[in-house]
Amino acid sequence: MDGVGRRAGNPSRSDRGPGLPIGPTTLATGRASGAGRPARACQHGAVRHGALPAGLVHQRTTPDFDADTVPAGLLRAHRVAPEVWGEVEVLAGTLTFVWEDRPDARVLLEPGDTLVIPPDEPHHVEPGPGARFHVSFHR
User: Are 47 and 41 in contact (CB under 8 A)?
Assistant: First the structure.
């Protein structure tokens, strides 16, 4: 495995969550565990990595970012605030999501894919060719 999640039939995608090694399933938080909820396919082949906990209320969504407009802070290690959950959605191109405590667990996201970011989990993003994405925040 090259460190990027892979799926049979489409070698650039993962149906197990954030590029975790074969074995444990993936929790909604994107972490390996003996029990949890694996990523699931959405419409048009998109993959949903994790799920927001029930009862959260949408607070805001960032503007769409691309390689030229992405804030520098998103490109280096950062965290979503305590008690706030994030959800990144890729609109075009590709975006690699990296959990800082597991840099080998890189997640390649493609158009339509979403990934849930739990509070206080260190991570960063790496926009690929043609990337366009935004982040929604929920509390």
Answer: yes
The C-alpha atoms of residue 96 and residue 4 are separated, in whole angstroms, by 9
What topology is assigned to 25-138 in CATH?
A: Jelly Rolls (2.60.120)
The two tokens of residue 31 are 């972490």
Q: pLDDT tens digits for 87-112?
A: 999 999 999 999 999 988 899 999 99
How far is residue 35 from each of residues 25, 28, 30, 32, 39, measured CA to CA in Å? 6, 10, 12, 8, 13
- Any idea where the domains of the chain sit in the sequence? 25-138
- pLDDT at site 118: 97
Beta carbons within 8 Å of 137's beta carbon, 6+ residues apart: 58, 59, 60, 61, 80, 84, 85, 86
Mean pLDDT of 33-37: 30
The predicted model scores a pTM of: 0.70
